[in-house]
Amino acid sequence: MNGASSVNPSATTEPAIGGLTPFSSVDWPGQLAAVVFIAGCPWRCGYCHNPQLQPRQRTLDWPAILHWLDSRRGLLDGVVFSGGEPLSEPALADMARAVQARGFAVGLHSAGIYPQRLAQLLPWLDWLALDIKTDQAGYDALTGRARSAWPVQVCLEMALEAGCALECRTTWSPQRLSEARLLALAQTLAARGVRHYAVQDERSAPGQPAQGALSEAAQAQLARCFASFSYRRS
Running DSSP on this structure, what letter comes out for residue 51? Predict the structure, then answer.
């Protein structure tokens, strides 16, 4: 993977890196970034497009990725940690410090499962995309885990208090969350201080048709709630 060497997948004492995208213009809006995928996630969301990253296993070597990043100074704006659930990696704060020391900004895609690890990471985090998967009543059925809404709310509050650049986003299907419930969720987020929100269509697999489409009226109402709102169809 462009200089990132593969390793024995059974070795788990080093960071559990499950993949690398060398260049992306969509994973951090307005930034050209590399995406480092962390393997490991305790949730089992039915629409997950990276189920191969749910088990914690290492397939790429972190020192090799750092060496590769040294050759990308001036070509990339930042590095996004995604997954899986990147906060499942105990060494993530140290990894973020190593990225910043090389002059790159640090972004994170997270479902907000591990508040203590987010607290450790926040001093080195430049941007956070936090999944708000559904309203609180729908979380346990969606994730397959009890009390799964609680850590998300803690992570959201910490990010807001820290003043971190934050985008909340919801992968949406009308079969799972009605437009009325989605609007109520968005209004709750706006009342808590969220300024940037995105809704992306749920698909059974990449390239498959969306489960439904937001009405123009719902889009207009959502846009009025936030400083910026994006409806992502692809």
Answer: G
pLDDT tens per residue, range 72-89: 999 999 999 999 999 999
Q: Taking a C-beta distance cutoff of 8 angstroms, is the pair 82, 27 a contact? A: yes
Cα-based angle 218, 222, 225 (whole degrees, multiple of 5)? 150
Contact yes or no for 153/118 (Cβ under 8 A): no
Inform me whether the pLDDT recorded for 220 exceeds 70: yes
Q: What digits encode the pLDDT tens for the residues 4-45?
A: 554 444 444 799 999 999 999 999 999 999 999 999 999 999
Q: How far is residue 197's CA from residue 170's CA, in Å, rounded to a whole number?
A: 8
3-class state of residue 57 by DSSP: coil
Residue 171 CA to residue 203 CA, distance in Å, equals 9
Question: In whole angstroms, what separates CA 64 from the centre of its chain?
Answer: 23
Q: Could you say which DSSP state residue 225 is in?
A: H
What is d(CA 79, CA 42) in angstroms, rounded to the nearest whole number?
24
Q: Which DSSP category does 60 fall into? A: B
- Which of 80, 75, 83, 111 has the alpha carbon at shortest distance from 95? 80
Contacts of 22 (CB under 8 A, 6+ apart): 1, 2, 34, 72
Q: Is the pLDDT of residue 185 over 70?
A: yes
Contact yes or no for 222/229 (Cβ under 8 A): yes
* Residue 39, token pair as written in the block: 């393997």
Give residues with Cβ within 8 angstroms of 71, minimum separation 6: 3
pLDDT for 4: 58
The answer to whether 200 and 210 are in contact (CB under 8 A) is no
